[in-house]
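Pasting as-is:
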Amino acid sequence: MFNTKSKLTEPVTISPSFQLPIILIILSFMLLFLNIGYWPTIVFAAFSFFLLLQSFTLRIKITNEDFIVLQLGKEIRTFPFKNWISWKFFFPIIPGIFYFREKSSPHLLPILFNPEQLKNELIKKVESLEIKNP
C-alpha cells in the first residue's frame, strides 16, 4: 500500500509558502475594479488574509508513518499513511489544492507549503497512492 522500501528517516517539516495567500490578496483588491460592490472584495480579502495567517501558523510534519498538521508547534491532527487511499495535487503551479483520501473521509487543503518539498516527501512515503494524470 505504501512505500516499504523507504528507510527509517527523521521527520521532515515542510517549509511554508506564502505564494497562494499573496496571489489571492492581490486578486481580492482587483475585484474593486469590477464594480460589483465592496462586499465581495471584503469577503475575498478576509479569506485571503486568513490563509496568510494560516501560512505563518501551520506546519506539516511528515514521519515514516504519519502526515501531521501542527499549529504553532502543537500537533492538531494526525493522518496515518496506513489509512490513505489516494492523493493528488490540483493546480500545483498556481499553487492550488492538495487532495488526499483516507478510508474514512476525503480532505482538501490549500497549498500553504512548499509544493515541491511536500510532493517529494509524499513520493518517498506513499508514491503508489498518487493519482496520476491521464
